[in-house]
Specification:
The complex is a heterodimer of chains A (about 240) and B (about 120). Chain A has about 240 residues and is of the alpha+beta class. Chain A is about 30% helix and about 15% strand. In chain A, strands 2-1-5-3-4 form a 5-stranded mixed β-sheet, covered by helices on one side. In chain A, helix 2 packs parallel to helix 5. Chain B is elongated and about 65 Å long. Chain B has one domain: Up-down Bundle (3 helical TM bundles of succinate and fumarate reductases). Chain B has 4 helices and no strands. Chain B is mainly alpha-helical. The chains are: A alpha+beta (about 240), B mainly alpha (about 120). Chains A and B meet through helix 4 and helix 8 of A and helix 1 and helix 3 of B.
């Protein structure tokens, strides 16, 4: 394939220079080897080095280049350019404060993540080698531990938009269930207590925007359902 | 006072279950209501009030109204929680909603037992 040009409409905002955000129309020439949106963004930045976005691994593992692509959150490095309608509209992840251009302040997102204690709590003395699980017990963690914390899900969730300070959000709740489902964890009761709150957990109304956008094809809604299940089993 | 987020109300599960429970009951009642109404010998006021003079039907209907109001309480409160940020205004709206729904429940009972 020869060179082709792709047109973009990109959200630009530099708080030091701009009074308010604006959308910039820009076209970029791509090489035949440029397949993913991130490739195009790298070319774009070569053209205009004031354009800012986060990126690191370029293969869907680090979760840095999450953005709103043609109205839907996703990772630039996993999105095929040819699958996108032009002009490709790029905006920062919705609902989080913008630092500059496509870079958002993720503090609130990580605050919620930390609030669910994303680590194993086990007060037994550490065994000589490792804490063992049966294959079935380990199976439970599939679909939970793969989350890369890119924030695509939480920032597509209206409940998180309205109450980012109180609602844990799909990413945090998926992580919460990852530890609730872990047979090596001993903090189940406290974890459930921590989530039994009309805001922290029950702002989720299962609209499944999170499932729709997850670049790793995970299912936070299902995990949230399982947390509610555990609470019902505990209370009824 | 420093405006920092305060969470950890330790409730919510009961409401979540109640919302589902009342929904199931409302669906069942709608079926019962449809069957009983369609099975009426004629569509007249006397047949209609005859249906409601049955004690069991009165009870089921009242339960239906209570379900509607409880369901509405949780749903409307959710809307206030999502969109109304000042705590004082939210509390006031909660109270107005609660008073209205309790009033409606009394009104529903009055209408049902008048038929």
């Amino acid at each position: 394939m020869s060179k082709r040009s792709v047109s973009f409409k990109i959200y630009r905002y530099d708080p030091d220079r701009d009074e308010k955000p604006y959308m910039q129309d820009i076209t970029v020439e791509l090489e035949a080897s440029d397949k993913k949106l991130l490739d195009a963004l790298v070319r774009l930045r070569a053209k205009d080095d004031s354009m800012s976005f986060r990126r690191s691994c370029r293969e869907g593992v680090c979760g840095s280049d999450a953005m709103n692509i043609n109205g839907k959150n996703g990772l630039a490095c996993l999105t095929d350019i040819d699958s996108l309608a032009q002009p490709i509209t790029l905006r920062p992840l919705p609902g989080l404060p913008v630092i500059r251009d496509l870079i958002v302040d993720m503090t609130q997102f990580f605050k919620q993540y930390h609030s669910i204690k994303p680590y194993l709590v086990n007060n037994d003395p550490a065994p000589e080698r490792e804490r063992l699980q049966s294959p079935e017990e380990r199976e439970e963690l599939n679909g939970l531990y793969e989350c890369i914390l890119c924030a695509c899900c939480s920032t597509s969730c209206p409940s998180f938009w309205w109450n980012p300070d109180k609602f844990v959000g799909p990413a945090g709740l998926l992580a919460a269930y990852r530890f609730l489902a872990d047979t090596r964890d001993q903090d189940t009761n406290a974890r459930l207590d921590n989530l039994e709150d009309p805001y922290r957990l029950f702002r989720c109304h299962s609209i499944m925007n999170c499932v729709d956008v997850c670049p790793k094809s995970l299912n936070p809604t299902k995990a949230i359902g399982k947390i509610k299940d555990m609470m019902v089993r505990r209370a009824v | 006072m420093v405006n920092r987020p305060i969470v950890g109300a330790h409730y919510g599960l009961k409401d979540w279950i109640a919302q589902r429970g009342t929904a199931v009951y409302m669906a069942l009642y709608t079926l019962i209501f449809a069957v009983c109404t369609l099975a009426l010998p004629e569509f007249s006021y006397s047949a209609w009030s005859g249906l409601f003079s049955n004690g069991l039907f009165k009870f089921l209907s009242f339960l239906f109204f209570l379900s509607v109001f409880y369901h509405a309480w949780i749903g409307v409160r959710d809307i206030w929680m999502d969109y109304v940020k000042p705590t004082g205004v939210r509390l006031a709206l909660h109270l107005v909603t609660l008073f209205l729904l309790v009033g409606y429940a009394g009104w529903a009972a009055q209408i049902l037992w008048r038929l």
